[in-house]
Design goal:
328 residues; Quinone Oxidoreductase, Chain A, domain 1; Rossmann fold; 2 domains; six-stranded parallel sheet; 10 helices; YIM1/Zinc_Alcohol_DH_Fams
Amino acid sequence: MKAIAQDAYGSADGLELRDIARPVPRDKEVLVKVRAAGVDPSILHLMTGKPYIARLALGLRKPRNPVRGWDVAGVVETVGAKVTSFQPGDEVFGSGDGSFAEYTCARADKLAPRPGNLTFEQAAALPVSGVTAYQALSGKAHPAPEQKVLVIGASGGIGTYAIQLAVSYGAEVTAVCGPGKADFVRALGATEVIDYTSQEITAGKHLFDIVLDAAGNRPLSLLRRVLAPKGVLVMAGGEGGGEWLGGLGRQLRGYALSPFLGQTLSSLIAVVRHKDLLTLKRLAEAGTIAPAIDRTYPFSEAVSAIKHLETGHPRGKLVVTMSSAPAT
């Protein structure tokens, strides 16, 4: 089968379209024929092997799985011996290790039926970013009506879902994003917008009850200054920090400080789970959330999609579609 793969950690220039063996599902896995794959920042960590601590899970000297990608939407091809929840022909979405390929294996508990009102491309934009936003707000922060919520990185994948979810809880959202994106985040439900290139992040008249940092590059001291005395900070992005620990260093400092403060300083490493995917499916079918897709790329241009993610600051998600994939 065709796949986007790399032999060594490094830049997107090390990725290539190549022929590799089709994966075989283990007992609790499902083989999915990929129809679309989402592109999210975690792919950059997979590709570069940074921060270095991530290599404990990814492979110390080179990637254990050379194929990139997590988000997937497609059709079940075969199922493992112990899988009873899916059968060949089912349309699914979720997380599979190595989704930039014609086929990927995914654990059955990391998949769910595709939302009926979403295309494969839209469904592929939902799993990792949607689950992260949902777990950050529903699992950590619990927004309430009229609470003030600050979303940093609001125009990215996590941020676009976080705005919609916070608004659905009745909260008032202030979005932090780059220039030219104010109308975009307002259309998602934000009532106030801060352009980080020209404005300081401040709380104005009211401190924020919840701060969701999906960008990961603001000092903890700044985030605490705009957070209410009993407020909740959720650090869901780890793009800052050094090469060894990345954003983990800031998160650890938050955990160390939190027991001595009225504020709750928490971090999140999201885990895609079947039950949360079912919740996202329900929310999508109800119209509560909708994927915001900046652009789709044909499979042959998947490397360009990753380069766009690195440098282009897309509005919402990027998606690779297999509709033009070469025949096996």
